[in-house]
Amino acid sequence: MIALHLYLLLGRARVRLALGLGLIMALLAADLHAQTTATAPTPAPRPALAPGNGKLLLTGGVSSIDGAAGGGLTPWAVIGSQATDGEIGATAFITRTHMQDYALTAFGAAIGVDDRVELSVARQALNVNVVVPDTTLQLDIVGLKVRVAGDAVLEADTLLPQVALGIEFKRINPGPAIGGVLDSVGAKRSGIDVYASATKLFLAAGILVNGTLRVTKANQNGLLGFGSSEQRGYTLRPELSVAWLLRRDLAIGAELRFKPNRLAFAGAAFAEDDWKDLFIAWAPSKHVSVTAAYVDLGNIVGHPHQSGAYLSLQIAH
Question: Can you list the positions of beta strands (E) in the chain?
C-alpha cells in the first residue's frame, strides 16, 4: 500500500511538472512573438493615390499639339486629367508657336476615364501668309488612347513601363490654293495615325523617359495632307522624350520626333525635317500647368530652319 501511494504521488508530480514546463514555454513563445512583431520593420508602402486627390503633379504630362497627353510634340502612355482609378477627368489647352515665317496655334480638350481611357479633340491652325496671303491651314484631330499595361506611378519601383495604344483621325482643310498643290502631289485630305507609347518613371531620381512608335501617312503632321503619288503606304517613325523633375512642380526636358519625308520628290521646298524641342513645364497647382519651349521644326514649304518659341497653357480637373 505504501509503495502504491508513493507511485501515485510521483505520477501527480510528473503531471504538475509537465504542466508547469508547458506553461513556461508558452509564456516564452508569446513574449518572443511580441518582441519580433514590435521590432520587425514595417515594409514601405507603395505610392498610393486616394480617390479625389488626383495625380502627382506633372506625372500626367501636358497636352501635345495633337491633343493627347504627353509632351508638346509627342504623346506619352499616360492618361490626361487628374482622374485616377474609378474617376473621370478633363483637360483643355491652348498652344502658340511662333517661328521665323510661320505661326501655329493649337487648342483642344481631352477626357480621361478611370486612368485608362483618353478621348481627345484638337485643332491646329498654321498661318501660311508667307506662301499664300490670307491663308490658314486647319487640321482637325480626334484621338483615342487606351492604357494596356503598367502604371507609371504605382509601379515606379519596377522595371515595367506604362504602355498605351493610340489612334488619331486627322483631316486637313487646306483652302483652294494649297489644296491644288496637295492634289498635284497626290496628298489626301484625311488620314489615320496609330501609335504605341511606353512611359517609364524613375520616381526616386525624378526622371521620366518615353518612347513612341507611330505608323503614319502624314506630311508635316497632316498639315500638308497624307501620303503622296510616290508613297501611298504607311511609314513607321519613332518619337522620344525625356523629362527631369527638378522639384514636384517643375520639370525640364527634350523631345525628338522623327518625320517621314514623302513629298521630297516634288522638290526641296517640300522636304520635311524631324521635329525637336527643349521645354520647361511648371504646375503651380494640380489644375494648371504652363509649358514653354524652344522648338525646331526644320523646313516648312520652302522656308528652312523654322524654329522659335512655344507656349502652352493647360487646365486640368
Answer: 62-63, 69-70, 88-99, 103-113, 117-127, 136-149, 162-173, 190-202, 207-216, 235-247, 250-257, 275-285, 288-300, 303-316
Distance between CA atoms of residues 33 and 156, nearest Å? 34
**Closest CA relative to residue 58, chosen from 208, 210, 256:** 208
Query: What is the number of structural domains in the chain?
Result: 2
Mean pLDDT (the chain) is 85
pTM (predicted TM-score) = 0.81
| Mean pLDDT in residue range 169-194 | 94
- Does 265 have pLDDT greater than 50? yes
pLDDT of residue 42: 47
Pair 194, 229: CB distance under 8 Å: no
Instruction: Residue 294: name the closest of 305, 307, 281 by CA.
Output: 307
- Has residue 207 got a pLDDT over 50? yes
Q: Tell me whether residue 158 is in a domain.
A: yes
Same domain assignment for residues 213 and 285: yes
Largest CA distance in the chain: 130
Distance between CA atoms of residues 193 and 120, nearest Å? 14
DSSP state of 220: G
Cell numbers at 104, concatenated = 501655329
Do residues 72 and 126 share a domain?
A: yes
Q: Are both 167 and 254 inside the same structural domain? A: yes
What does the alpha-carbon distance between residue 170 and residue 173 come to, in Å, rounded to a whole number?
A: 10
CA distance 16 to 10: 10
Q: Give the DSSP letter of residue 135.
A: -
Tell me the pLDDT tens digit for each residue of 120-156: 999 999 999 998 998 999 999 999 999 999 998 888 8
Domain limits for position 149: 62-316
Q: Are 20 and 28 in contact (CB under 8 A)?
A: no
Q: Tell me, what amino acid is at 21?
A: L
Distances (CA, A) of 186 to 71, 195, 222: 31, 24, 13
